From TrEMBL:
Top enzyme class: transferase
Keywords from the named record: ATP-binding, Nucleotide-binding, Nucleotidyltransferase, Transferase
E.C. number: 2.7.7.4
Family statement drawn from the similarity comment of this UniProt entry: Belongs to the PAPS reductase family. CysD subfamily.
GO molecular function, one term: sulfate adenylyltransferase (ATP) activity
Domain of life where this protein originates: Bacteria
The keyword Zinc appears for this protein: no
Residue span(s) of domain Phosphoadenosine phosphosulphate reductase: 33-256
Region Disordered, annotated ranges: 282-303
The UniProt record lists the keyword Nucleus: no
Matching SUPFAM superfamilies: Adenine nucleotide alpha hydrolases-like (SSF52402)
PANTHER family attached to this UniProt entry: SULFATE ADENYLYLTRANSFERASE SUBUNIT 2
Name of encoding gene: cysD
Name under which the protein is recorded: Sulfate adenylyltransferase subunit 2
Length: 303
């Protein structure tokens, strides 16, 4: 008598199933969810998971981009193309409009990452979103490592790391009062390497800046920033054209590239497997303001 082979689920399939379960749970519990979509790799994977979670129907919620105005052109082009292909409703919360209307003030150094938070909270209030899908992962940064998959935010959009709800046996508590909201992180248990393996498996297209290319950069504090309209050379600095790629995409004035020859998905996977520094630690200037920079921003209402 032939024996039945044991049923095994791969690591990626298990992560995918968990994320899809979380997305469906949100649709069952909340009235007005939205997916935060920047055109970065994590939000792109999240969008792919949403496709699979609700197929053959269309994705049943809008996507929102908190637009600092300091964007990489390749990423904006990808964002608009992907939204059009999937027939999604795109909500753009503009930091520049918020500056023009007086909601926020431009910082002296010209960076806009910190002033995204009031713009995000204003959009949440305007559109009455009660659940926001974010692409944060626990392996990225220590503040994100201790955040729950369903992260409760009070009526001011603030997060209290000492007052988090238990999530035993995959049970998620989405109860909230009017004005409160939940940030939902379906990719919490994924790693950067998992993301790239999934991109390879699903053949998900990405903006070209995620692969090695020639770009004019300037080195500051050990990081390579693209020379563009947002980053000008300072006195004594010189730029050079180097082969680089971006591990993460954020505000163009604070996101650095890494030296790389990885111009294909397989080469990127090999490169990520060998690295010992997270993508935020290696490339995000906004996380180096202080040891608690990310947690401080999350307490204020950041993603």
């Amino acid at each position: 008598m032939s024996q039945t082979k044991p049923y095994r689920v791969s690591h990626l399939d298990a992560l995918e199933a968990e994320s899809i379960f979380v997305m469906r749970e949100v649709m069952a519990e909340f009235e007005r969810p939205v997916l935060l979509f920047s055109g970065g790799k994590d939000s792109i994977v999240m969008l792919r998971l949403a496709e699979k979670a609700f197929a053959p129907a269309r994705i049943p919620f809008p996507v929102m981009h908190v637009d600092t105005g300091h964007n990489f052109a390749e990423v904006l082009e990808y964002r608009d193309s992907r939204v059009a292909t999937l027939g999604l409703n795109l909500v753009v919360a503009s930091v520049q409009e918020a500056i023009d209307t007086g909601l926020v003030r431009e910082l002296p150094d010209g960076t806009r990452n910190r002033i995204q938070t009031p713009v995000l909270l204003a959009a949440v209030e305007k559109y009455r979103f009660d659940a926001l899908f974010g692409g944060a992962r626990r392996d990225e940064e220590k503040a994100r490592a201790k955040e729950r998959m369903f992260s409760f935010r009070d009526e001011f959009g603030q997060w209290d790391p000492k007052n988090q709800r238990p999530e035993l046996w995959g049970l998620y508590n989405g109860k909230h009062h009017p004005g409160e909201s939940i940030r939902v992180f379906p990719l919490s248990n994924w790693t950067e390497l998992d993301i790239w393996h999934y991109i390879a498996k699903e053949q998900v297209p990405l903006p070209s800046i995620y692969y090695a290319h020639d770009r004019e950069v300037v080195e500051r504090n050990g990081m390579f920033y693209a020379v563009n309209e947002f980053i000008k050379l300072r006195d004594g600095e010189t730029s050079e054209v180097r082969k680089v790629r971006y591990r993460t995409v954020g505000d163009a004035s604070q996101t650095a590239a890494v030296l790389s020859e990885a111009d294909t998905v397989d080469k990127v996977i090999d490169e990520v497997a060998a690295t010992r520094i997270t993508e935020r630690g290696a490339t995000r200037g906004d996380d180096k303001v202080s040891e608690a920079a990310m947690e401080d921003r999350k307490r204020e209402g950041y993603f």
